[in-house]
């Protein structure tokens, strides 16, 4: 019949992962790390946390095997430990969305906050498949509106980087004769919605990628890192 005490120990070890996921702020850090490798300082700024608090949360995630680290001098960089962690986070998010009614309401409230009533019509969306096909043909411009650190860590090949906060003064840098498809972090990210609103207000043809960088990476589609790319280069 087996040793029940050893069985208890087994389940307690598995529960370490569940306990690590049992914090909204740690889930937010996983969402940020799904964009690519980040330093503690950058994560703290993005999550609106102190550096010491961020470091403590990351240590819990590291002890559960969900993140790994790389040291660069005195700075420590974190990333998700593997594609299975990406999938675990996505599945947790999906189950919560299906089973907890408050999740859907909270998501809708967040994604519409700060947007003007006139912009709250359904945002036109483009699927991954359509983006790949049309970008290869060169008939649209892919726009990454995440912070520069996230773009540098990983982005869709050929995407132009203009962080949302810079977009109002840099719209003229985008081709005026093509549809612009904006993307950001994923299903819980408002940046692309706001970018499309800004582009529409400026008279530009714009859509939102239906999903973001998290889902792009989960489907193991090509990514680039580093300096700003110009022009379509999706392979």
TrEMBL record:
SUPFAM superfamilies the record matches: Rhodanese/Cell cycle control phosphatase (SSF52821), Winged helix' DNA-binding domain (SSF46785)
InterPro entries per the UniProt record, alphabetical: ArsR-like_HTH, HTH_ArsR_DNA-bd_dom, Metal_resp_trans_reg, Rhodanese-like_dom, Rhodanese-like_dom_sf, Thiosulphate_STrfase_CS, WH-like_DNA-bd_sf, WH_DNA-bd_sf
Keywords assigned by UniProt, alphabetized: DNA-binding, Transcription, Transcription regulation
Keyword presence, Nucleotide-binding: no
Sequence ranges assigned to domain Rhodanese in this UniProt record: 136-225
One family name in Pfam for this protein: HTH_5
Keyword Transcription regulation recorded: yes
HTH arsR-type domain span: 6-100
SMART domains attached to this UniProt entry: HTH_ARSR (SM00418), RHOD (SM00450)
Name of the protein: Metalloregulator ArsR/SmtB family transcription factor
């Amino acid at each position: 019949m087996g040793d029940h005490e050893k069985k208890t120990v087994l389940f307690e070890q598995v529960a370490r992962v569940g306990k690590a996921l049992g914090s909204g702020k740690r889930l937010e850090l996983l969402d940020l790390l799904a964009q690519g490798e980040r330093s503690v300082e950058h994560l703290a700024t993005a999550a609106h946390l102190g550096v010491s608090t961020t470091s403590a949360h990351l240590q819990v995630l590291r002890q559960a095997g969900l993140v790994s680290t790389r040291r660069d001098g005195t700075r420590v960089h974190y990333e998700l430990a593997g594609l299975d962690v990406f999938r675990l986070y996505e599945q947790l998010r999906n189950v919560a969305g299906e089973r907890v009614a408050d999740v859907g309401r909270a998501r809708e409230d967040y994604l519409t906050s700060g947007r003007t009533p006139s912009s709250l019509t359904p945002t036109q969306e483009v699927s991954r498949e359509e983006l790949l096909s049309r970008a290869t043909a060169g008939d649209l411009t892919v726009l990454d509106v995440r912070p520069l650190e996230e773009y540098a860590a990983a982005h869709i090949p050929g995407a132009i980087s203009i962080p949302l906060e810079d977009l109002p003064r840099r719209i003229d840098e985008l081709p005026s004769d093509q549809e612009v498809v904006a993307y950001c972090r994923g299903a819980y990210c408002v940046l692309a919605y706001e970018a499309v609103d800004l582009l529409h207000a400026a008279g530009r043809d714009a859509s939102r990628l239906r999903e973001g960088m998290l889902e792009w990476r989960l489907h193991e589609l090509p990514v680039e890192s580093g300096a700003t790319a110009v022009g379509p280069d999706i392979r």
